[in-house]
Amino acid sequence: MGGILKNVYAIGLGLFGGKEIFSVNFRSAYLTMSLEAVEEEMGVLPEGYRTLKMALDFAEKLHVPLPPARDLWDVIHGKVEAETFVFAFVRDFVE
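Request: output the structure for the sequence above.
Response:
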């Protein structure tokens, strides 16, 4: 169920792109509200959250760095601003 909802929210993000709404703050607020709605409705966060946690735990046991995943985890838990994460991701992985 969480995977299906994730896809619905991803489509919403695509619609924002089509309307040329590229504000990181707007997108972050949309995703935050979406995740809160899923958690409220289902009592848990979507499957991607658990998958991310499991991947990070497994990587830690194997001493394998996963910088983008770790940074995303920090955004989810409020340790890093979403805008900082996006700019770092673009700088490190796209350029």
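Residues 2-94 form one domain.
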